[in-house]
Write a structure and sequence with these properties.
Blueprint lengths: L1 H28 L6 H21 L6 H16 L9 H32 L9 E5 L3 E2 L2 E2 L1 H16 L4 E5 L10 H11 L7 E4 L5 H16 L5 E6 L3 H10 L4 E6 L6 H17 L4
Parallel strand pairs: 1-4, 1-6, 4-5, 6-7
Antiparallel strand pairs: 2-3
Length: 282
């Protein structure tokens, strides 16, 4: 099923890209002067907007889902205006767009570097307790994002037979059970002994994941334990900074992201890192 969806999505993008190229060729044939820059701007904008449309049907709605369209729709609208942007309001609009997209490019580059550095910096982590940060549940079923986190935690527990884990997550919209209970059930069904799993079922954010999980660690497992946490690769940096802000020294273990959500999650995480930084939550 995973491979089939990959092929479907790639096929849709291939058809859309071909349609954009054909449309530009037809317009040029009918006498419209379309520069390579205009054509590229329109095509990139169309692909980003299409990406949002596709992902809206495959994922829970969040900022990351609509961000490609927020970047892409202005490109589509600006493409036909490019030859006329040397005077007046359109000139100001051109420099506003240049400044906005340049700032976004810098933000994405800096945050991307931080994310990549963090997710590759916790190899061979040793810990007594691993906290698994929750993600969306569809009804009672864990999503692919959360499944990847749980499989990563399972591998860690198998390699560290004396370690235990705390699965952390409350109940959100569209979820029939708490994320914590769904995560524990998933691990138990795959052979992890129930006594090695502690379910935290109140958290609704990353700071709460750590706060409530550590209450369980201190009250039920014991103090002085070495702590690690599992989250999706793009989230390791921000989660680690959140933990540190709470006085918790914990190493992150990166779980793989779902391939078709990589762009959306990356863009949303960049905004998250920026928001946490400017509001002093790190």
């Amino acid at each position: 099923m995973y491979t089939r969806w990959r092929l479907y999505i790639l096929a849709v993008f291939a058809v859309a890209l071909a349609a954009c190229i054909l449309l530009i060729a037809v317009l040029r044939k009918h006498g419209h002067k379309i520069s390579a820059f205009q054509g590229t701007l329109f095509t990139v904008g169309a692909m980003l907007t299409l990406e949002t449309v596709i992902i809206m049907g495959l994922s829970n709605f969040n900022l990351g889902v609509i961000m490609p369209a927020l970047l892409g729709v202005p490109m589509i609208l600006l493409a036909p205006l490019v030859p006329h942007m040397d005077h007046g309001f359109l000139r100001a609009l051109k420099w506003f767009a240049v400044a906005g997209y340049s700032a976004a490019a810098v933000l994405f580059a800096v945050c991307g570097f931080l994310m990549l550095s963090a997710q590759h910096g916790a190899k061979d982590t040793d810990a007594d307790v691993v906290i698994v940060l929750g993600a969306a549940v569809h009804g009672e079923k864990v999503t692919w994002v959360l499944e990847n986190r749980l499989e990563t935690a399972k591998e860690f527990l198998e390699a560290h037979p004396d370690a235990v884990c705390v699965v952390s997550g409350g109940q959100g919209p569209g979820e029939s059970v708490t994320e914590g209970s769904a995560m524990k059930k998933y691990l138990v069904e795959r052979g992890v002994p129930a006594e090695r799993i502690y379910a935290e079922e109140k958290a609704t954010s990353t700071p709460e994941n750590f706060r409530y999980a550590m209450e369980i660690v201190e009250n039920e497992i014991g103090t002085g334990k070495k702590i690690a946490f599992v989250t999706t690769d793009f989230h390791v940096y921000r989660a680690g900074r959140v933990a540190r802000a709470q006085g918790l020294e914990a190493k992150g273990i990166a779980a793989p992201d779902v391939w078709y959500l990589r762009l959306n999650n990356f863009l949303r995480e960049c905004v998250g890192i920026f928001g946490y930084a400017v509001t002093g939550r790190f």
